Amino acid sequence: MTYHRPVLNGDSLVGPLSDHLLETEVSGDISLYDAMTEQVTVLNETASDIWRLADGEHTVEQIVQLLAGAYRIAAEDIREDVGITVDQLLEARLLEIRSP
Amino acid sequence: MLGNVFRLVFQNEQLAEQVDELLSGFETTRRPARAANILQVTGLPGSRHRLYKNCLVASATEAGADLVGAMISAINSSAIEQCAQFAVHSAVVALGSTVVAIPAESGGGKSTLAAACVLSGFSYISDEALVFDAAGSVVRYPKPMALSPWSCETLGLEPSARERIVTPGILGGSIAPDNSKLTDLVLAEYGHKALALEEQRQSAAVGALLTHAFNHYKNPEQAFYQATETARQVRVWTLRYDDPLEAAATLSHRLAR
Description:
The complex is a heterodimer of chains A (100) and B (257).
Chain A: E1 13-16, E2 21-26, E3 29-34, E4 39-42, H1 45-53, H2 60-71, H3 75-91, E5 95-98
Antiparallel strand pairs in A: 1-5, 2-3, 3-4
Chain B: E1 7-10, H1 13-22, E2 38-42, E3 49-53, E4 56-61, H2 65-82, E5 87-95, E6 98-103, H3 110-119, E7 123-126, E8 129-131, E9 145-147, H4 149-154, E10 164-166, E11 184-190, E12 196-200, H5 204-211, H6 220-232, E13 235-241, H7 244-255
Parallel strand pairs in B: 1-2, 6-11, 11-13
Antiparallel strand pairs in B: 2-3, 3-4, 5-6, 5-7, 5-8, 9-10, 12-13
């Protein structure tokens, strides 16, 4: 079956795709284990921050604003990178776009 | 060996003594070996030798000494296959309280680097597997190192036209004491002219441990937690090197506690 991912935009709510993801933290970086596919993913520092905020309660734009505040930089400086990272996590079937 | 008992049977006493010395790092026991772990070498000096594993011929040569490598390789495969704990393809060496694992695939230079470390003053734990016991201590697996002619030449050892099997004792070193805790994990990359040892985030160890694990598929969830728990407790380094002896000297200098 082909998987067609919905189009991502700033208003998209994003959250973990699978309830069988095991999550643990090593030196501040998130490591994920998908018990179904047996795949392990180690996220870097920024991707880990995005992962923590992608809880199904925040939109992509809210994640951008929260990270910009935390990193003390302008939102436009990180909007594209956050989008790319969320896109990669969607592609890896770790995140999903949720309905509001 | 890694919790398994092997029984080795020889007709050729000279060969038996040679293998006995090479495997002197392992405990001798009266516990019986399971049938699959009984290896037999038939043949007397001057005659054709055959290695039997589980009653089947595994290898045959004119000279008994040529079978030693095959025998150690067969024992190693079985020991690893039957290992119940999380095990990672890795060289492991120790220097005082510093215990260093260097995970790498087969042919990735583990034995050469382990031998270089022994020559540089490290004590030996394994050139093959990083294994933990239930208490989180490193299990010694001092299988003799198989060094290629290139390795012998690079390490300044007596030139050899074929693979040479050596113990740490032959290299002037010793086997590390039991119950040591892993302190450092080195991700080594051979083929870099400029030597560099750089500290990395601990999370870099998670992928390396799981990528080089032998048996993570037996219990993936446990392997994931073991890898992450191990990563939290060690310093993680990348080592780019070209000369194994120079690399070992740097590890000795920089990692000693």
